Structure prediction request, 327 residues.
Amino acid sequence: MENLLEVKDLKTYFYTEDGVVPAVDGVDFELKPGQTLGIVGESGCGKSVTSLSILRLVPNPPGRIVEGEILFEGKDLVQATESEMQHIRGNDIAMIFQEPMTSLNPVFTIGKQIMEAIMLHQNLDKNAAREKCIEMLKLVGIPRAEQAIDEYPHQFSGGMRQRAMIAMALSCNPKLLIADEPTTALDVTIQAQIIELMKDLKDKLNTAIILITHDLGVVAEMCEHVIVMYAGKVVEEADILELYTDPKHPYTVGLMKSKPSLDDNRDRLEVIPGAVPNPLDMPEGCTFHPRCPHAMDICREKQPHLINNEEGRKVRCWLYEKEGEVK
Ligand code: SF4
Ligand code: MG
Prediction:
């Protein structure tokens, strides 16, 4: 099957007064139609900037895509014109964010906002758009959709607002949905409901999804494939089962240990010691070395490459690479 999306050696830097921040520093991944890819890492690892780059929504200045390709159905979005991007956003690629209140306009009804998106991207008149909107509200499980369509965002609960955002994003049948921390602002019960909803919609609509999260539990629920990012780089990539049963990179292992789980009764989570490095002052060698329990001399001097190890697993770590054997 052809890839829907191919990101190749993507570099997105921010040019600040204090220096250059390599927020995304040579990221590669691929996505097939209908596939769900999780991008995992702590805040500041570059996962959100990766998704903003795909939509060409990185604020410029100070941000800029400095290198790489983002091939969407074979077309390089890095080279696309702004008007081409406007067509692609919403039509082919839609995005939902953590806090729907920032993307919903408080002065317009939910229905007006979703209908506007539908009318802008599909050739439908007002009545047909209203019908489609009610259909979408029902699809995402909003009760009393016929009335709810005329309500304002503040009349919706947080969970219902996120459902409305999902309805808006999906109303134009995008080929790719990018969901950036879609459940983080919600309480645990509502989180579980939204995840269920997204799983259900993914099966029904066959939309490819990039799910961005710091929460490995959410990834396990939804994704087939995962990339783990640290300090702007991919440090591990694997199928979900492989990653869970046998994480390779010491950072992934640390993330696993700090993952809360409903059925474990550890009274304290193990948190990875240390902090994400200052992007203006990245450590030499492996950027994870100040926090890594396995750091060796070479780790402090030379950057490891993202390699395919003997088992065919992609990992960026000297433990799996022999010096001089560059691939
Ligand atoms: Fe740890 Fe070295 Fe691997 Fe970096 S390269 S994760 S410091 S063992
Ligand atoms: Mg983010």
